Amino acid sequence: MIGVKNLPTFAVKRILTPFCYPEEFRGFGISTRALVKLIREHGVMNAILTDDPELGEAAMQQVQAYRINGAVAAVSCKNARAIPAEDAIRTVVLWDFGAKRNIVRELVKRGCSVVCVPAGTTAQEILARKPDGIMLSNGPGDPAENTGILVELARLMPANLPTFGICLGISCSRSRWGAGR
C-alpha cells in the first residue's frame, strides 16, 4: 500500500473537507506521486480501492483476473475528421487512442491543421493523407495490449516523418523501438 503518513490536518480541513463531506467523498490518503512512480516502473496493473486491510484470497484472485478488452477502440474516434487551422503551416495526423480535445486545440493554435484518425487506421491510410507529422495521442492501457498499433507504427518508420506522442502514444513508440515502457 502506498500511503501518506504526515498529511497536515489544517490543509485537509481547510481545502478538502468543505468540498468532500457534503458530496460524501472519502479519501484514502494515497500518495499519487508514489503511485505514478510505481506504475512507471512496473507498468499497468490491476488494483482495488478498499478500506479493508485484509482482502480475502477470492477477492485478490478476482482483481488479478480482471481484464479490460478493447479500451483504446472504445475511446478512439470512430471516423476520421479534419480540423482546419486558419493560415495553417502544417498538417498533423492525430492518431486517436483516446485523445483529449485540448491536444487538437493546441495543435490548431500553433498553426497546424489536424486530421484526427481512429486507432484502427493503417500506416498506409495515415501516409495517404500526406501529413507533415504524426501525433500519437494519450489513451488507456498498455502498449503490449495494442499490437495492431505497434505493427502500424513499424510500417510508418520508413516514411521518416516527425512523430511525437503523449502518454500511451509515447509508450507505444518506446515499446515498438525496444525502449521499454
Automatic annotation (TrEMBL):
Annotated Glutamine amidotransferase domain residues: 94-171
PROSITE patterns found in the cross-reference section: GATASE_TYPE_1 (PS51273)
Record flagged with keyword Transport: no
Chain segments annotated as coiled-coil in the UniProt record: none
GO MF annotations in UniProt: carbamoyl-phosphate synthase (glutamine-hydrolyzing) activity
EC number: 6.3.5.5
The protein's enzyme class: ligase
Protein name: Carbamoyl-phosphate synthase small chain
Origin species: bioreactor metagenome
